[in-house]
Design a protein that fits this description.
The structure is a homodimer of 200-residue chains. Chain A is an alpha+beta fold. Chain A has 7 helices and 4 strands, in the order βαβαββααααα. Chain A has a 4-stranded mixed sheet with strand order 2-1-3-4, with helices on one face. The first copy, chain A, is globular. Chain A binds chain B through residues 49-50, 52, 58, 62, 64-70, 72-73, 76, 85-86, 88-90, 92-93, 95-97, 99-101, 103-104, 138-139, 142-143, and chain B through 49-50, 52, 58, 62, 64-70, 72-73, 76, 85-86, 88-90, 92-93, 95-97, 99-101, 103-104, 138-139, 142-143.
Chain lengths: 200, 200
């Protein structure tokens, strides 16, 4: 069976649980406590030299890191990945947007505030992250004002990828009330078949 | 003809020039001076709401941002993208690694030192970036010790993607002499057919 090495409250790990559940692919969850630096042990680094979760073990000794690469792998030839070549590239566009322009601000703020629970210690860094996270939300809002999902008219891995940290952005100090199209989209994602919560 | 909106010394823009040249696909270069905030004008934001270069115009009004999404689009069904499903996912893995664990440290340091030419102003931030950039180089060195290229035995868009900022890492204050496998790989990339320099 597939093994998912994960830190359960991580949005990057949740992305994979959500897609595999929606695809009805069984997997075993193996917790890695990043707060105890369990992703930096010699044993874990032999599995993923970059020392991060999630990490998927496809078969004994065959590993795939990077949440969005795992989404890509399992979505191929399923309804979660478009068939049109340009739409495929647009899925990539939004997934790279997520890792470069969204996750480093919204996920990192959530980590400091709600996982480490040290908002005072990271006060200055959080202030720097705020405008950049809101800028990413603004780009998303503009797209979702005119489209039900990020690419084409269908729910794809681009949505799964961006949903993971956006729907818990409040845990990073971001207020979504000014983003009505994002809020509507969050509801549409939650209505997808086999949806599971991040806390599931 | 394809139009590439770019800031010429940007490694992210160079990635696209390198692949399109190697594929012998003609394109027009349209300079966007990011130092003059030309990527943040209303006109540019109407093309790419995220306000970044590179941006590719495939046909009038049809735009694709995100350097690695553009690499993905043009590499499909060419030798620059593997046919094996797992190797395809490994290409994704390295491209997401590049945008999350490499570019924010090595490219950003290069930008402050060699493009803005303000190393003193960014001294403290540069010191924070150094260990994280070297960590990314360490992960690359480990992979390249045992493999000629990042995925399989062939030169792919994973190599183009990581080459862009790695081969000019010295311009960001990174010393590659401790990374012999990376230096050998840089030479292998430079020997690929239709190779062009970042300054070309």
């Amino acid at each position: 069976m597939l093994k998912l090495y994960e830190y359960p409250s991580s949005g990057n790990c949740y992305k994979i649980r959500l897609l595999l559940t929606q695809l009805e692919i069984p997997f075993e969850r193996i917790p890695v406590d990043i707060l105890k630096r369990e992703s930096r042990t010699a044993k874990f680094l032999s599995k993923n030299p970059n020392g991060r979760v999630p990490l998927l073990e496809l078969e004994p000794g065959k590993y795939l890191p990077e949440s969005n690469a795992v989404l890509y792998y399992f979505s191929q030839e399923t309804p979660f990945f478009p068939t049109d070549k340009f739409e495929q590239a647009q899925v990539m566009q939004w997934m790279f947007f997520e890792q470069y322009s969204h996750e480093p601000y919204i996920a990192t703020s959530r980590y400091w505030i709600s996982i480490l629970r040290k908002p005072e210690e990271y006060k200055q860094a959080l202030e720097q992250k705020q405008p950049l996270g809101y800028a990413a939300l603004g780009v998303m809002e503009q797209q979702l004002k005119e489209h039900p999902f990020f690419v084409g008219n269908n729910y794809t891995i681009a949505d799964i990828c961006l949903f993971a940290y956006t729907h818990v952005a409040d845990e990073g100090g971001f207020d979504l009330t000014g983003f009505p199209a994002i809020l509507d989209w969050i509801n549409r994602v939650k209505q997808q078949p086999n949806y599971i919560q991040i806390t599931a």
